[in-house]
Write a structure and sequence with these properties.
Oligomer: single chain
CATH topology: Neuraminidase
Number of domains: 1
Helix content: under 10%
Distance between the termini: 52 Å
CATH architecture: 6 Propeller
Number of helices: 1
Structural class: mainly beta
Shape: globular
Radius of gyration: 20 Å
Largest sheet: 4 strands, antiparallel
Strand content: over 45%
Order of helices and strands: EEEEEEEEEEEEEEH
CATH superfamily: TolB, C-terminal domain
């Protein structure tokens, strides 16, 4: 599934199902346009998102036995990763300035991690919950405003909706 593109518009980033599970790849939008494998392991890696400066990739992986959020240099997926989440994490998003990563924790909270990246060194400074979120509908379930202060979140409604009435042959009823 296509999840992001680099800020310079040179690459599309996606996860795809392969013989080893879900893996991460990218494809150049010009030139030969052949997909390049970024991260292929026996674990499931999903939801890749490129940092605003185009040098880092945040994603989720189940390599620890549950999904956690990690960051690796981009486009070199072979270099060391840094774990961002501590108690489960999925669906990472970068703040516009690249100093924060938002993600859902394992206990349905939207989290924010303040990060610092200088040269080739990436560090998680702090992580804290922002608020509780009811179950979301799918993997691409929220977006963050450019200022990082508001969120649009697609959740599953727990309320009972009014029934939908379908009227068949309504034109005959109108003619009477």
């Amino acid at each position: 599934m296509l999840t992001d593109w680099t800020p310079d518009g040179r690459f599309l980033v996606f996860d795809e199902n392969t013989e080893t599970g879900s893996d991460l790849s990218y494809v150049p939008v010009s030139g030969d346009r052949k997909p390049v494998s970024y991260l292929k392991t026996k674990f499931n890696e999903q939801n890749p998102h490129v940092s605003p400066d185009g040098r880092w990739l945040a994603y989720q992986s189940d390599e620890s036995g549950r999904y956690e959020v990690y960051v690796r240099p981009f486009p070199d997926g072979e270099r060391d990763k840094v774990q961002v989440s501590a108690e489960g994490g999925i669906d990472p998003r970068w703040s516009r300035d690249g100093t924060e990563i938002f993600y859902f924790s394992g206990d349905e909270r939207l989290m924010v991690s303040t990060v610092r990246h200088v040269s080739s060194h990436f560090t998680v400074v702090t992580s804290e919950p922002l608020f509780h979120v009811r179950k979301t509908t799918n993997r691409t379930s929220y977006t963050v405003t450019p200022d990082g202060q508001r969120f649009l979140i697609n959740t599953v409604s727990e309320t009972t909706e009014a029934p939908i009435t379908v009227l068949l042959d309504w034109t005959a009823a109108v003619q009477r």
